[in-house]
Structures are given as C-alpha cells and as structure tokens.
C-alpha cells in the first residue's frame, strides 16, 4: 500500500512510518514540522526508497491537493495534531486551527482526490484519535466505542470535533473512513514535555519530579510500537465507518507509574538512588480528568489484536532508550516551553 501519514515526524506518527516502511509499504510523511516534530524520529527509514517527506501544513488546502495528486496514495493515516493538553489550556486557538480546521481541510482534500480517482473501493481515510474525547470516569467502568463523548479540555474538545467531522464525511459523502481512539502512549522518541520523558530526564538530572495534584489520576498506558501495530491492522482490516478503542490493558495511577520509572532509574543509575525522593506534588491541572480506561473487546474480538508488552517491560525499554539516546533528546530541551510548567490557567 502507499500510505500518506500526516504528523509522521511526531511521536506516534513516526512509529507508524518506521513500522509501515519495515513492512514494505510505501510511505509519504506529511508534516508541518512544528515544535513537537523531529525528523530524527524517522532517520532509520529516511534513506529507504519506500519513504518520502513533504513539509506541508494541514491548514493549507492547496498544499494538500498538491501532495495527494503528486503521490496518489491508497490510504491516508491522519495523526497530525496539536497534542499537549497543557498547551491547549494556554493557547487553545492552535488546537482549533490544526485539529478541527486542519482535519476539515484534509477530509475535503481527501474527498476531492478520492472522487477524482473514481472512488476506488479500497481507499481508506484513517483518523487517529484519543480516549480523552470520552471524558472522565469514576472508580469503575471503561470506555467502549458506544460511550458518549464528553470532552473536558480544549485538546480533547478539538479532537472530539475532528472525530465528528470524520464520521459526518463518511455518512454524508461516503468517504471510506475508519477511526481509532487510543489511550496514553509512551516509548522511544516521546517529546520531552510529556509525563514519562519528564520523569526520566528529571530523575537523571536530580531535579524535582512534578506530579500533578495527588497523583491519583488513572490512565491506561500503551507502548507506542504496539499502537503503531494496531493502527496498521485497523487500516487494513477495520470495518468502514467503524471506530476501534485501543488500550494497553495497563491501568495505573500516575504516582505508581512515576514510582515504577524511579525504580528503573535506581536499577540503571544506582549511584543516585533512590530517585523517588525527587517526587514533588504540584498544583493540579485545571479540569484534570480523573480516570480513563479502555474496554478493548472490539479490537480484540473482531481483529484479534492485543498489546505485546506489559507496562513494566515497556517502561524498562523506554528508560533504557532515553539513557542510550541522549543525542536525540538534548537538543529538544531548548525548544520553546520545554521544561516549563504550562497550562495552569
Ligand atoms: N500521545 C498520546 O498519548 C496519544 C494518545 C492517543 C491519541 N493520540 C493522537 O495521536 C496523534 C499523534 O500524537 P503524537 O503524540 O504523536 O503527537 P506529537 O505532538 O508528537 O506529533 C504531532 C505531529 O503533527 C505535526 N503537526 C502539528 N500541526 C500540524 C499541521 N498543522 N500540519 C501538519 N503537521 C502538523 C507536528 O509537527 C508533529 O510532528 C494525535 O492526533 C493525537 O491526538 C495521541
């Protein structure tokens, strides 16, 4: 297949690009190269004849038309987004422009391209979204694909809006779409403003490890390479118009996740143990959702997919990767906003 991946220089998009090329797909990586992007993420495949890159912004309709006509992909996997909840609190405008208007542009460009191409039955538009669109759970329960949307941050509201647009383009224009809503990812190449890399790098530097509120917020954690694997499966085997929840079957309180990372750091850097003495509770994020949990029955029963690594194994690999790849993350610490507390409203 020839796949146009938007956001392929970001964290999850680059995992999709690397895996798709390894599996023999042709990949066109379309990315605007915002603060969150890094072409080093795809360095391992960038010399492959199967890979090409287009610097373009999904808010720019003409650029999208040009890229689609030039490369003539069989499928679009849409991962380009503003993705950091804290930044969405300080500056929601960029989230509306990229996640909502950008998705609208991409849908329209894809619909026009698909129509011009004679509406091939095999064409797919795969929209990648988040479990955050479902809002916050209490102590029990899980999100299914039928759970009502209840987004509570500018980020999750913008992603919810984009999900609605994608479904509408399927129902109204027949665009062949599939959607996925995934839980929190972690793993190599994660931009150092997100929780897992922040904990690793602050522990490494002996700096306070910030934990929001009481640390009792619960997330389901999915290793990014497992997510990429699930996404390619949904692209190939998912039923049209349907959405699939993807989870890691690894629910953990933030504080427990942070302690697990500290224990890994104790093992790998024993001279600075115990790292959990660096844990510092800080003012909570406004509107911080308490608990997310994924019911993975649909993707497990219909497509036979399960995550391959436990959170303990995934975190071990991730901590080792950050310690071994300092050349990757050091330059990113100088990017705007990194290392600062954002989103206090
Ligand atoms: N990170 C998670 O835990 C998680 C979980 C579930 C779903 N998601 C979704 O997966 C997708 C990818 O997330 P991520 O964590 O890899 O994000 P990321 O911030 O690491 O990467 C986003 C990429 O999109 C690009 N981009 C941003 N605005 C663009 C624009 N206007 N035009 C073109 N490119 C643009 C950036 O340059 C960057 O390379 C997002 O849609 C996100 O909502 C993420």
What is the N-to-C order of secondary-structure elements (H for helix, E for strand)?
A: EHEEHEHHEHEEHEEHEEHEHHH
CATH architecture of the domain at 2-184 and 222-248 and 293-308: 3-Layer(aba) Sandwich
Average pLDDT metric: 97
Helix percent reads 40-55%
Number of discrete helical segments: 11
What's the arrangement of strands in the largest beta sheet?
A: 3-2-1-4-5-6-10
Terminal CA distance: 44 Å
Principal-axis shape = globular
Radius of gyration: 19 Å
Q: Look at the structure and name the CATH superfamily of the domain at 2-184 and 222-248 and 293-308.
A: NAD(P)-binding Rossmann-like Domain
Q: Which regions are unreliable across 5 or more consecutive residues at pLDDT < 50?
A: none
Residue fraction in strands: 15-25%
Structural class of the helix and strand makeup?
A: alpha/beta
CATH class of the domain at 2-184 and 222-248 and 293-308: Alpha Beta
Largest sheet: 7 strands, parallel
CATH T-level topology of the domain at 2-184 and 222-248 and 293-308: Rossmann fold
């Amino acid at each position: 297949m020839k796949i146009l991946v938007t956001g392929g220089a970001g964290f999850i998009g680059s995992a999709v690009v690397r895996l798709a090329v390894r599996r023999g797909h042709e990949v066109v990586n379309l990315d605007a190269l915002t603060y969150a992007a890094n072409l080093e993420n795809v360095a391992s495949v960038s010399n492959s004849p199967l890979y090409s890159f287009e610097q373009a912004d999904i808010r720019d309709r003409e650029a999208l038309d040009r890229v689609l006509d030039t490369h003539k992909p069989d499928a679009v996997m849409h991962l380009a987004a503003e993705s950091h909840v804290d930044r969405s609190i300080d500056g929601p405008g960029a989230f509306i422009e990229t996640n909502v208007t950008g998705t609208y542009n991409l849908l329209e460009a894809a619909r026009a391209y698909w129509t011009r191409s004679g509406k091939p039955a095999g064409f797919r538009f795969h929209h990648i979204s988040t479990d955050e669109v479902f809002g916050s759970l209490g102590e029990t329960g899980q999100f299914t694909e039928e759970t009502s949307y209840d987004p509570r941050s500018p980020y999750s509201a913008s992603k919810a809006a984009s999900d609605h647009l994608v479904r509408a383009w399927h129902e109204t224009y027949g665009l062949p779409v599939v959607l996925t809503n995934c839980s929190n990812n972690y793993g190599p190449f994660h931009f150092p403003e997100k929780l897992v890399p922040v904990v690793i790098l602050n522990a490494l530097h002996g700096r306070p490890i910030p934990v929001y509120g009481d640390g009792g917020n619960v997330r389901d954690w999915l290793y990014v390479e497992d997510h990429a694997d699930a996404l390619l499966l949904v692209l190939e085997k998912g039923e049209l118009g349907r959405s699939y929840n993807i989870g890691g079957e690894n629910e953990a309180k933030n504080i427990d996740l942070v302690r697990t990372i500290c224990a890994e750091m104790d093992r790998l850097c024993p001279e600075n143990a115990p790292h959990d003495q660096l844990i510092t509770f800080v003012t909570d994020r406004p509107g911080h959702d308490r608990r997310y949990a994924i019911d993975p029955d649909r993707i497990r029963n219909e497509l036979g997919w399960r995550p391959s690594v436990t959170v303990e194994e995934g975190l071990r690999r991730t901590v080792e990767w950050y310690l071994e790849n300092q050349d990757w993350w050091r330059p990113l610490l100088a990017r705007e906003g990194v290392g600062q507390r954002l989103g206090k409203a």
